[in-house]
Amino acid sequence: MPVERVYNIIKKDLGKKKKKNENVNIIQKAPSNPIMLDDKSNVFSKAKRLFSDKKQTIKEQNEEFSKLLNSAIEYYDSVKDEEKYSELNEANTKFTQLMKLLDKGALPLAKDREKIEEISREISSEDGKIAKTITELKKMINEQLSDIKTKHKVLETDKDLQRYHTVRAYLKVDKFELIELINHASGRYGEMSGLDLESIKNVLNTAWNELSSVNKKLITQIAALAPKGYGQGEFFIEFVFDDANTAGGSVSYDISAGSAHYEVKCYPGINSVIRLGVEGTLTGFESYHKLVKVYNSIKQLLSLSQEEFSIFENMCVSARKELPEDYRDKNLLTSLNQLFSSRTDNDSSITLSDKLNSGEFSSKNIQATQEVFDIFELLVNSIYDNAFEYVKLMKQNEIFPVKKYDNGELAIDINKDGSATIQTSPPINKDAESKVIEAINSLRVALTEAKSAAKGSKFLEYFRDSISEQINKDFEQHPMILMNSNITGQSKEDAIDSLEESKPTKAVKNSDIICFGVYTNFSFQTISQKGVKVSVVS
Question: Which residues of 174-195 are buried (b: 16+ CB within 10 A; e: fewer)?
Answer without folding.
Answer: ebeebbebbeebeeebeebeeb
